[in-house]
Amino acid sequence: MTINYKGIWPVAPVAFNPDGTLDLEGSKRVLDFLIDAGVDGVCILANYSEQFVLADEEREVLTRLSLEHVAGRVPVIVTISHYATQIAVERARKVQALGADVVMLMPPYHGATLRGTPDQIFEQFQAVGEVGIPIMIQDAPMAGNDLSVPLLIRMAKEIEMVKLFKIECIPATGKLRELIAAGGDVIEAPFDGEEGITLMADLDAGATGTMTSSTIPDKIRPIVVAHADGDREQAARLYRDALPVINFENRQCLWRAAKAAMVAGGVIKSDFGRHPIAPLHPEIRAGLMDVLKPLNPLVLSWGK
Question: What's the CA angle centered on 221, arms 219 and 225, to 5 degrees?
Fold first, then answer.
């Protein structure tokens, strides 16, 4: 598959049954919904997939299920982050064998205090790169590492498989602009994240793609496309329309927004989150629906 690293590549949530077991049919429906929404690619097992509540065996089940079900309809990124380089490499090999197109990982970290040094970060990405699968570097606040622009450019230049960059540390826009200006052609695919909360500014800075949640991909993709086509006015108008949902999700719901919307639209049966993840407060759920309905996104009707 020739991959065009542009557009919208949302994170697919993992569906759970109300008893906390994996809802595998629900997870397949999530992927079908995303493809029907016109996404350019899909990311699985990321933070917005609640990767931090999954057992290793469940990761393997979901990886195999997702890749077999997508079956090449769109490219798939599989998140493989781990503090241990050996485990990150093993994960990369496994998902490559299963047919993943790209792997994504944060720099090595664990808890609040264990952080890889710049040299250790480079060494981990270098080791994963030797597997021979394209890599997206996730520069996320959760990791807490300082991925400086010089370090990112060094990895892009010296590690052949480092091709994609998901920049979502604050301020993402300035970092994207600096990275693209300093790195030039080696920055093959600069993406933003954080639900697209700074999407217009990031596109203006040179981002060519975005990795959002799965809540409103059909409303966000046209923003990216219009901007890429040179119609910034149209992109800005569409962004203003979508911004209330993006803001409410980012500030009130986080990953729970997509699953709540999917329950409302019949994509999945339950928006259960494993303890200690708390369910959405009824008022927050109602507020989410209040901002979603005027936008009329596909998620609210797909399964009805």
Answer: 130
Does pLDDT of 1 surpass 80? no
Least confident of 151-155, 167-171, 284-288: 167-171
Give the contacts of 61 (CB within 8 A, at least 6 positions apart).
22, 24
> What is the C-alpha separation between 283 and 111, in angstroms, rounded?
32
Q: Is 151 helix (H, G, I), strand (E, B) or coil?
A: helix
- State pLDDT tens for residues 112-148: 899 999 999 999 999 999 999 999 999 998 888 889 9
CA distance 273 to 255: 10
Q: How many other CB atoms are found less than 10 A from the CB of residue 301?
A: 12
The answer to whether the beta carbons of residues 160 and 132 sit under 8 Å apart is no
The CB density around residue 229, as the number of other CB atoms within 10 Å, is 10
Mean pLDDT of 185-213: 97
SS3 state at 198: coil
109-110 and 114-115 as β-strands: parallel, antiparallel, unpaired? antiparallel
Helix ranges (H only) for the chain are 24-36, 56-70, 85-98, 118-129, 149-158, 172-183, 199-205, 217-228, 232-248, 256-264, 282-292
- Residue 147 vs residues 35, 59, 75, 120, 259: alpha-carbon distances, Å: 32, 27, 26, 12, 31
CATH number of 7-242: 3.20.20.70
Element (H, E) at 165: strand 162-167
Q: Are 189 and 209 in contact (CB under 8 A)?
A: yes
Active site residues: 166
Q: Do strands 162-167 and 135-139 pair parallel, antiparallel, or not at all (unpaired)?
A: parallel
Tokens 């203003």 appear where? 240
User: Is the link from the previous residue into 294 a cis peptide, with omega within 30 of 0?
Assistant: no
